[in-house]
What we know:
The protein has helices at 3-19, 26-30, 40-63, 73-85, 90-109, 116-146.
Amino acid sequence: MTDKTNTLHLFYTYLNWLDSLTDIDEDTWDAPLTTGKWSMKAILLHMTNWDTYLIQETVPALQAGREVVFPEFDAFNQRAIDQAKRGILARDVLAEAKAARQTLIETIERRGTLSPDAEATLFHIIEDFIEHDRHHEYQIDTFLHQSGQEKPS
């Protein structure tokens, strides 16, 4: 696999990880991971919002040769917390997360020809978001382990 193909493959593994969460009960989804921290729903909505931002803002900016601009993180992340508190069901969070990631992967695959700098920037951003995925996956996996909600292997 080329480095770019491997990077996209790693980005894709998030979808498999999401599939491992389907049998977790709703109460667990709503519980904060620790006191004062986000719930699983808020974390996945946070990740989904970032995927959507990359689809709607980042990739088009790179395609147009514009500078990539990221939103103010605290306000952007607050949206996920607010969404989670509105009573969205876990299955709907999973469906949104899967759809957003799949669309993002397809958007990247169909990006067309980018300048060498834009291409390098795109894959640097993807690599950063793979680390972001892994960070939150680890948080959730640890929480599930500690709460006795083991995921199927």
